[in-house]
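User: I'm curious whether this sequence folds into something compact or stays loose and floppy. Could you predict its structure so I can see for myself?
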Amino acid sequence: MSLWTRLSEIVARLPLAETVGSMIDRAGTVIRETLGADARRQVSFTISMIALTAKMAKADGVVTADEVAVVKKLFDVPEEERRNVARLFNLAKEDVAGFESYANKIRRLHAEDPDLLEDILDGLFLVAEADGVVHERELAFLETVAEVFHLSPQVFSQIEARHVRPDARNPYAVLGIPQGSTREDARRAYRKLVGENHPDRLMARGVPPECIRLATDRMARLNEAYETIEKELVAG
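Assistant: Here's the prediction. I'll summarize afterward.
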């Protein structure tokens, strides 16, 4: 049974008046009781991403076509499953509950897999930058989510650095090293991050294969940062 079939079955069982907040609670119970470890991580990750992505897309006051397009690319959903996934997205978008309550539920849902919370924040940044700029309200949203997830300011800054405009991106911040680090420092940090963020490692943590864009985007930005530093240090 595919990830999307499992997710659709959960969504299809929900009463029409169900809120996403109560759905997250209900889904958490179903996931724990009926799925194996790998499927449990993948389904809970996907529910979390769709719910917060919908709130993220509306954080600046409007859900743009660019943001919806990124959601579709981030999640490669089969045609036959799109209606149920769209229902989940629309429920979250229209739900009056504050996103902080979602974030708290999601933090508890992933209590055993805290690294997934960084992956969720990374995906939210992809949506935020879809229209070409991370708006102030979106950034405030992301900062609050990071706080609720108990992510450190250093982790937040490193993720943020990957998603600013290419012409303003600080390659040292992307690799999590201080400005002026040596070539060896850069190489060591780069290799460590590549090992931690290789698509295979993300899948092992619970990021589903259907969300491969998250992994490939992250690797591309790490490669870009390292190449920029290499050129700068060789030229210097």
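Summary: The mean pLDDT is 79. The chain has 13 helices and no strands.
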